[in-house]
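Troubleshooting log. The previous structure file for this entry was overwritten by mistake, so regenerating from the original sequence record. Sequence copied from the archived sheet and checked twice against the printout by T.R.
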Amino acid sequence: MRRVSLTGLLTNAVVWALAVVWALPVVGLLMVSVRPFSEVVVHGWWTPYGHFTLNNYVEVLFDPAYAFLQGYLNSFIVTIPSTIIPILLAAMAAYGFSHFSFPIKNYLFLTLLLIMAVPQQMVVIPLYFMLRNAHLINTFLGLILIHSSWGLAWITFFMHNFFKMLPREIEEAAMVDGAGYFTIFFTIVLRLSMPALLSASVIQFTWVWSDFFFALMFLISPDKYVVTQKVAYIRGEYHIDWGLLSAGSVLTMLVPLLLYAFLQKYFIRGMVGWTVKG
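Regenerated output below.
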C-alpha cells in the first residue's frame, strides 16, 4: 500500500485551498451574470437560488449602446498582429543571440533583461509623444506597435533559452549540405521550435487581449475601443447593473480561457520554463 507523506498532504491541502480562494470570485461573477439586477441588489451575490437567465449576455452582446461585438472585433484586430509580429522578430533575434558572437552581444542581452523590468507606467508619457509625432494616436497601428515592441524583450529572452537547447548537429548537417543560415532558420529551426513558438504566442496573446492600460492611453474614439474598454464603460454614471457588468467580464475572459483550453500544455510549458516534458 502506497504511503502518503505528511508533506505531500500539506502541499495538496495548501494547493486546494489556494484554488478554492481563487475560484470563489469567479463563481460569484458567473452567478451574478445569470441573474436579474433586482435579485442581485436584494439577495446579494452569493445566493444560490433565484431566476437564472442569459438576458444579461444577450443585452451586452447585441445592445447598440454597449457595442460589445465591435469591441471583440477591435481586440482581435489589435491582438493577432501584436502576437505574430513580436514572435517572428523575437525568434530571429533570439537565434542570433544564441548562435552568433559579436562585440556588444552581452550588453544588448543585458539591455533586454533591463527592459523586461520596466513598468508600463514609466514609459507611457514618452510613448504618447512618439505616437503623437507619428500621427498614430487613436489608431490600431499605434497600439499594435506598442504591444509588439513591449513583447519583443521577453519573447527574445524566452526563445533564446529554447534555442540553446536545440541540438547543433542538425544545423551542422544542413550546412554541410549547403544550406545557409536563413534556410536553416526558416526550414529547420522554426519547425523544431514550434512548441516554444506556440507557448510564447499563447502568453503574448493573453497579455495583449487582457491589456487595459495601453488601450486606455492611446485609443480615444469609442468606435475603436477594445473589449476591456467596453467592459469599463458598461458601468453607468449613476447606476451600475452588476449583472451586465459581470456578463461583460465573463465574455472578456472567454477568449483567453478557450485559447488556454486548446493549447494548455504549451501554456504550462511557457510558464514553468520548459521543465515539464510531454
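DSSP finds 14 helices and no strands in the chain. Archived copy saved in two places this time.
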